[in-house]
Design goal:
Structural class: mainly alpha
Radius of gyration: 19 Å
Number of helices: 5
Order of helices and strands: EEHHHHH
Strand content: under 5%
Distance between the termini: 62 Å
Helix content: 40-55%
CATH superfamily of one domain: Cobalamin adenosyltransferase-like
Number of strands: 2
CATH topology of one domain: Hypothetical Protein Ta1238, Chain: A
CATH architecture of one domain: Up-down Bundle
């Protein structure tokens, strides 16, 4: 259980922060960038949920996702070690990504076949979910950059990859009944004067 009795530590005043294993690193560290972007993503999902307009089944899924994203952050802020035991650190599991796949399949089953790329927009809920999707992709890229430097739980990247797909279908779902998807028309403005 987490106990937060004091909010400020002054550690960050000099541009440093502590990881989950106690190591001190610069706030610009690739690992901090990765879990910081996950935190940004979580906040955007919170905005999507708070503004409303989601399908009834979407809100509890997104609440679970927000909790999972704290797990992702906990996983990323604690570097992998060779002597970890199963319960020594909170790590993302394959089950969490598989659950997202089930959510994607359930939502996508009720959506029409796409014949063009979707432009972000339509309803406010869809626009926020599309923004969350793009930040999710950035978080995934940041995690891959970290994985190029040091070991990272590969399930983190799998989870984020599936999550961006879930956010896409939830954005499409949010536009059902509001005119549907806003579709890309290739070259539409090319010949306009």
């Amino acid at each position: 259980m987490v106990t937060l009795s004091r909010i400020y530590t002054r550690t960050g005043d000099g541009g440093q922060t502590r990881l989950g294993n106690g190591a001190t690193v610069p706030k610009t560290d690739t690992r901090v960038e990765a879990y910081g972007t996950v935190d940004e993503l979580n906040s955007i999902i919170g905005l999507a949920r708070a503004q409303g307009g989601l399908a009834a089944a979407a809100d509890p899924v997104l609440q679970r996702v927000q909790n999972d994203l704290f797990d992702v952050g906990a996983d990323l802020c604690r570097p992998l070690s060779d002597d970890e035991t199963g319960a020594s650190a909170l790590r993302i599991t394959a089950h969490q990504a598989a659950r997202l796949e089930g959510d994607i399949d359930r939502v996508n089953a009720d959506l029409g076949t796409l014949r063009s790329f979707v432009l972000p927009g339509g309803s406010m809920a869809a626009a926020w979910l599309h923004l969350a999707r793009t930040v999710c992709r950035r978080a995934e890229r940041r995690c891959w950059a970290l994985a190029a430097q040091e070991r990272v739980n590969p399930q983190v990247m799998v989870y984020l990859n599936r999550l961006s797909d879930l956010l896409f279908v939830l954005a499409r779902e949010a536009n059902v009944g509001r005119g549907g998807d806003v579709l890309w028309v290739p070259g539409q403005g090319r010949d306009e004067a």
